[in-house]
Description:
Layout: H1 2-20, H2 29-50, H3 60-91
Helix pairs in contact: 1-2, 1-3, 2-3
Amino acid sequence: MGWLWAIxxxxxxxxxxxxxxxxxxxxxxxxxxxxxxxGAIVGNAIARAAGVDATSGIDWSRxxxxxxxAVIIVFVVDMxxxxxxxxxxxxx
Length: 92
């Protein structure tokens, strides 16, 4: 059940990150989901290091770290994806 929640959270974080980043992102949905999952993992690690991973109620600070990490990861991966796709289209 943990993997299912990771995929769902990654999907939602990836979509929110794509909505926050200005302009059009060309990465496919599966890659965005993976980036969202990585953002959740990195955000949790940063929250744990900052000492805000376990608070009473909703962990807004942990979610903020997750979202910021997802935005950065989606942005970087989309740039790398477009650089790779652009090189492949020039060869064809």
